[in-house]
Amino acid sequence: MDWQTKSASDIGRGIGAGDVDPVALTEAYLEAAETSPYGNRIYARMTRDRAMAEAIAAHDRAKQGIRRGLLDGVPISWKDLFDTAGVATEAGSLLLEGRVPERDAVVLQNATRAGLVCLGKTHMTELAFSGLGVNPNTATPPNAHDPELAPGGSSSGAATSVTYGMAAAGIGSDTGGSIRLPAAWNDLVGFKPTHNALSLEGVVPLAESFDTAGPLCRTVEDCAELFAVMGHTHAPDLAEASLKGTRFAILNPYSHDVRDAPGAAFQSAVERLNNAGALIETIEVPEVVEAMETTLSLYTAEAYGTWGKVIEANPDRMFHRIRDRFRQGKDVLAPDFVALWQRLRVLRKAYYAATSGYDAVLIPTAANMPPNVAKLDSDDDYFVTENLLTLRNTRVGNLMGVCAVTLPTGIPSTGVTLMCPRGDDARVLRLAAAAEEALS
């Protein structure tokens, strides 16, 4: 059996049954990354010694019958903004070249305690500030369907490490869609938990008011198990999840104002969810439109406030399009920033009131398909317009403060997202598990 194509949870069950050796499996993932022509485009650096030591320990625990949980011994990748003790963590930027933290990020500490194997650090958009996944200064990972297409960002390598058989799952971050977009464009499940549901200690920030850590996986079960591991808690029960009697709201205009291919995929997904018993209707929430049109500077201002001095000390070391995006926050006034946050809190309350009668809100994960990397490289205007469109739908979730899961629709590089109110992480995962079965 080719265990490298199996879900993290299935691998964990295989280890528990004695069918999978964590040492051999870890070596297989490492070898795949080290020998593949795409390995250096996916991994910024491997942690071979650590991985093999952790795999040996997991092997010994399995033999002794003292495994620490379902995922003990399962090898996964980590986006290069999660601190790893003694190993460079550079967030895809030459500005942070040679940055070596002294300790692991808290979520990585939790995963290590649970017995997971750390394979290495994956490439990403520079400082996590783009949804396309393009990074000419370090590497642009290949899309699962065509190496010439954008992989989605900013957790680009986290997604492609899974689709190219170089990890059982990837851990990424999501500030405006950076988990959900690469998951959708590479046919994976991506989970953006509620903001601050998982610790961000030891995670290189972009805009801490929106930053969120989470998994990119083959299945909803994997997302639930990794969410539990990262939070040092118990996984939600997904057994016998059903869509019968559930009520879903399709959020207009973000569900309809999309390009043809993702639009057709979304409609196909909606029909299958309806056939599985979900009651689905379309709604409009004007407050969401207002938030989307007026609050972009919350991102740019906080991002520039975090990184402005570092950027201006060495501006030529940055990919100019990402640098320009940061600089959009340079002149945002503090009173305007405060007033925008106050208004956003009002708009969030209105969104929750408008959607309170539904189990989840549905939206196409991305309004577009993966664009060609060469064209993005050569055309500044195209890069800007595609990046904004790419992030448009996912940013709804971050602005409204929800938790969200993107699922593959079955049509390549398209996803459907389920969104639930903040704190309802277990519920959105359970709904997603039922939707996953309907969509399969």
Automatic annotation (TrEMBL):
This is Amidase. It comes from the Bacteria. The lineage of its organism: Bacteria, Pseudomonadati, Pseudomonadota, Alphaproteobacteria, Rhodobacterales. Pfam families: Amidase. Residues 25-429 form the Amidase domain. InterPro entries: Amidase, Amidase_dom. GO terms for molecular function: catalytic activity.
